[in-house]
Amino acid sequence: MARMSRRRRIAVLAHPHCLPPDDYASLPYAEQLKYRTEANVLEALDSLGHQIRVVPLEDEVLPLRKAVQEMRPHVAFNLIEEFHGAAVYDHNVVGYLELLRVPYTGCNPRGLVVARDKALSKKILRYHHLPVPGFAVFRRRKAIKPPRHLQYPLIVKSLTEDASAGIAEASVVRSAEKLVERVQFVHENLQTPAIAEEYIDGRELYVGVLGRRRLTVLPIWEVSMRHLRPDAPRILTLRAKFDARFQDEHNLLIGPAEGLTDEQIRSLQRMSKRIYRALGLSGYARLDFRLDLEGRPFFIEANPNPDIARDAEFAHSAEAAGYTYEQLIQRIVALGLSSIEG
Description:
Elements (H helix, E strand, L loop, with lengths): L8 E6 L14 H4 L3 H12 L3 E6 L5 H10 L3 E4 L11 H10 L9 H8 L1 H10 L7 E4 L15 E5 L13 E2 L2 H14 L4 E5 L3 E10 L3 E3 L3 E4 L13 H5 L1 H6 L3 E4 L5 H17 L4 E10 L4 E8 L8 H8 L4 H13 L5
Parallel strand pairs: 1-2, 1-3
Antiparallel strand pairs: 4-7, 5-6, 5-7, 8-9, 8-10, 8-12, 10-11, 12-13
């Protein structure tokens, strides 16, 4: 487990709108949610005795440059998910830290680029003979031609956005006509290319991984969707992921995966390590799988730098592996200290 180490100077990179206000503790729970990750991480770093400087980043790197010059941090704790409002720019912030020779927590820029592109990551894994659903990519401003090699139903989503952006029941399509409609929706509303994958009916599993060279695979977690409508697709929509009232009404639970055989667990653990390395990930990541009705796992997508709030699934899975929350944060810091080599 992570052990207490000497006090470090840590620059915490965060979006200004995610930084907890002074009255955070007195806010209603629903209001606290938007700040919880940053609040939890800052509280843990403080309790571990580290010297912290918060660096708000939105559309200008000068605050980061200034913080590096003035503080000379041992490591930057990266909580950035976008830059200039675009998720595809997140890797540039990490690349800038590498140019400055500042160690950082979480994933390296190459891994972020590969994982961000859902089609590219699947192409790499297919090359390594790892199971992925069949898929097709639809670029913006090009004619939408339904592919003949895929079997319906398909699930349509953004090629590059995460956090279930744009995912709804209508994302699962069963005809060429509905496919075209949903691809147009992604193009127009998310302003990104779209990807259509063969929909894998079954269980949704999460596998957390920590490490750089030596990897720790956390206990397998599952999204329980047994209380959705019988005719509803078993997917985690944007509403299901972030609407607390919807979660309560449908008894949507995320917790330890139950009923897996020892062989399924070993297979998912081995597969997760292979995927993590094949995609060039580092620091920590959550890998999403679907287990079909015959018990076969399919890789869906990788989420480097997933939510590490105290009550998020990654932290809960780490707790099941024996980490306290503070030990998890300290482990992430320790991995970050070795992110710059040479």
